[in-house]
Task: structure prediction
Amino acid sequence: MGELSSQWGQCHNLTSLKISNNKIFGRIPPELGNATMLGVLDLSSNHLVGKIPKDLGRLKSLLKLLLNNNQLSGNIPSDIGILSVLEHCNLAENNLNGLIPKQLGQCSKLLFLNLSRNILHGRIPSDIGSLQSLQSLDVSQNLLVGEIPQQLGVMKMLETLNLSHNNLSGSIPFSFGDSASLTSIDI
Result:
């Protein structure tokens, strides 16, 4: 119980910070962006509030970003797109709003992306379709609108796709019919 100290940002050799399933409250300190060796940042299942600091974009070694199951709000920072080695990003079950940043399409190593159970709106960016390593995409239970981007159907590694409980319209792209890797799809 307590707040997350900004002092963690001074631990320049820190490679893993896992403080999940606790009663941590308050904001994520922007100073965490100074711990540039971090490979894993897991602050999931706490009581964190406020915005995701754009300073996390300085964590160039980050493989896993787990901020799910908190009360975070505001936009998803486009700076996350700078994280070129990011493999696992879970921002589900928060109060994040705004658009899904198209810059996420630049995280070329991304295997798992979960943005579900937020209040994100706008369209699913077609840039997400350029994530050719992505195996799981979940953007369910948001306020997303528009058509399903055709690019999602040509993702070679995508196994699970959940777009359910949104306000999507249009038809399901024919490109999904050629997807050999899909094992589960929920629209």
In short: The radius of gyration is 16 Å. The mean pLDDT is 95.
